[in-house]
Design a protein that fits this description.
Glucose Oxidase, domain 1, single chain, 595 residues, 4-stranded parallel sheet, 20 helices, 2 domains, 13% strand
């Protein structure tokens, strides 16, 4: 079969290196990855390996935002990880280079590499160049905010169209320090991406050379038997959290780094993020809360300059990286461009603490993530405006019924209740576009786009669909968000209301969403899908994952490769749940107000 595909005897004597591509024609984030893959394969061949390219999916957050299609976004992270893992174990690969672009493909690829524990690395396709509108740089964030401005009569329809036509001028992922660039930066600090590789913009001619270098680099990892989990240590994950905090990056980094740690078998809890953020100043002046794009940061000195600043504060630990050099050896190469302003001097940070905080309280007993970028508020007290689902909320904002001081509650958008934990950028951008960004707070069991800024608390756990307190909030309840005390509370007799709570009627779900809803964990645990009822990681020592290269079908693997049903009790994954059954997840959203 392999010879029929064009491989020779000489080819098959070489290490087989998977090139896991997330190329697709649907989004600029990934549209150029076919070209990059060719250069990765050249580097693999030059270093004595045999590349085997294969593809997986990508779901565009920016395109699906504000629609039912957004429910597929977080689910796609698991599909990306599952499909790369499945192909690699099925074809007995010796190493993997994963190519990522749009938001969920970055954590999805790294999760797969953590599961496989092969010599491997991840290359990000790079950021898009900023668009130009009325003499200024713009990103997709500006388009979403313009929708709100247009609804408020602050922007003409013609200007909105011109902005829409200008914001995305070519290939590459969203240009601010949104989720993609936050996770691409984190990947370098994790050591799973070569320093300086991810930050090269998508359309920079140097990106092809970077791809070729990554092909050669994976062969060095194969020769030295340097495996993914040897890089994805607790210390490396803390370095990655530090990078996200220092760049005021996306709150999605909390969700994704929890998931990566889970797949790597590294103990990590949501509360571990807060002390790291508290001691890390924001020193990168990046959109959405700042002035510059990822391309600007690359020109200023990039990841190495950022890391050198953080190292001088004692905020990083020296760890191994996929380049073969240690983190600190990489940072020794830092160079700062004269006159740059994207990375601030340590004496003049943008903020003394990182871009997000972890809050708990009567509204979020298992925690939530509060965005601190783009505002200076440390406390907000206001009446709840409660909505079941994003659509009803967006309609209320566009109709002008949200008032200064309100706390907008969007529920039944969690990992299971959505399902899929949609991002609320359409709502948050509309709020900002109507001039309410500094006076309204938003709380949800869903997520926020990395392009969101303002006082926004997401990932509220337990989610409404699991009977969390957010399901019990009513219009007019006073909600308090206090950054200093790390509290989020609602003034109401929640215990009395809990006794009256009844399950919501469920709609039939597409089968893939029903499967996801049946197995997904809480957002406070990374919204991972767990194959084991006891919740342990596939990489946990008690699971007997044979890192010494023994057969994937070994009994101690704990993986039912013997043909037992996916719905077997030990799987904990009810893949045969019929649509509409109580186990099949929640509704697609009634768009209904609950007062």
């Amino acid at each position: 079969m392999l010879k029929g595909a064009g491989y020779s005897n000489a080819d098959l004597e070489k290490p087989l290196i998977g090139v896991a591509n997330t190329w697709t024609e649907v989004t600029p984030c990934n549209v150029h990855l076919r070209r990059l893959a060719e250069h990765v394969k050249e580097g693999i061949r030059e270093a004595g390996g045999m590349p085997v390219e294969f593809n997986t999916i990508a779901v565009s957050d920016g395109i699906t935002m504000g629609t039912d299609g957004m429910r597929a976004s977080l689910v796609s992270r698991e599909v990306v990880a599952d499909s790369i893992e499945l192909f690699s174990i099925g074809h007995l690969l010796d190493g993997v280079v994963a190519l990522s672009g749009c938001d969920k493909t970055i954590p999805g690829t790294i999760m797969a590499l953590a599961r496989l524990d092969l010599p491997s690395l991840m290359l990000y396709g790079g950021a898009i160049a900023p668009g130009r509108f009325h003499g200024r740089d713009v990103t997709i964030q500006d388009v979403f905010e313009a929708v709100g401005a247009h609804a408020a009569g602050k922007m003409s329809g013609e200007d909105l169209r011109v902005l829409e036509d200008s914001a995305c001028p070519g290939a590459g992922a969203c240009g601010g320090q949104f989720t993609a660039n936050t996770m691409a930066t984190a990947a370098a600090f994790l050591g799973i991406s070569p320093f300086g590789a991810n930050e090269v913009p998508a359309t920079d001619p140097a990106k092809d050379d970077v791809a070729r270098t990554c092909g050669r680099a994976v062969m060095r990892l194969v020769q030295k038997d340097t495996r993914a989990r040897g890089l994805l240590t607790r210390e490396a994950i803390e370095n990655a959290i530090t990078s996200a905090a220092a760049t005021a990056g996306s709150t999605n980094a909390v969700l994704h780094l929890l998931a990566i740690a889970y797949e790597a078998g590294v103990p990590l809890a949501i509360d571990d993020f807060d002390p790291i953020c508290a001691r890390t100043p924001v020193i990168a002046d990046l959109k959405p809360g700042g002035r510059f794009t990822a391309v600007d940061m690359h020109r200023a000195g990039g990841e190495r300059l950022l890391g050198a600043r953080l190292r001088s504060l004692g905020l990083l630990t020296d760890t191994a990286t996929c380049s073969g050099r240690t983190l600190f050896e990489e940072l020794d190469e830092a160079r700062e461009t004269a006159g740059q302003e994207a990375v601030r001097p340590l004496a003049a940070p943008l903020k003394p603490r990182g871009g997000f905080a972890i809050l708990r309280g009567s509204l979020a007993p298992e925690g939530c993530v509060l965005k601190l970028a783009g505002h200076d508020r440390s406390r907000h007290v206001g009446p709840a405006r409660v909505f079941d689902g994003e659509e009803a909320t967006f309609a209320a904002v566009q109709a002008g019924s949200i008032q200064p001081g309100d706390v907008v509650i969007i529920r039944y958008e969690g990992p299971r209740g959505g399902p899929g934990m949609r991002e609320m950028l359409a709502v948050t951008a509309a709020i900002v576009g109507r001039g309410l960004g500094d006076s309204v707070a938003l709380v949800t069991d869903g997520r926020f786009s990395g392009a969101t800024y303002g006082m926004m608390a997401g990932h509220v756990s337990p989610e409404a669909d699991r009977g969390g307190p957010i399901a019990l909030v009513r219009d007019g309840d006073m909600v308090t968000i206090d950054v200093e005390s790390r509290r989020i509370d609602v003034a109401a007799d929640l215990a009395a209301r809990a006794a009256e709570l009844r399950p919501r009627p469920r709609r039939a779900l597409p089968r893939v969403l029903a499967k996801y809803a049946a197995g997904v964990s809480s957002a406070s645990e990374g919204a991972v899908t767990r194959p084991f009822e006891d919740g342990t990681s596939p990489a946990s020592p008690e699971r007997g994952r044979n890192l010494d290269g023994t057969s994937p079908a070994s009994p101690e693997r704990g993986r039912n490769l013997d043909g037992t049903s996916p719905a077997s009790p030990e799987r904990g994954r009810n893949l045969d749940v019929p649509a509409g059954s109580p186990q099949g997840g929640s509704t697609l959203g009634e768009g209904q107000r609950h007062g």
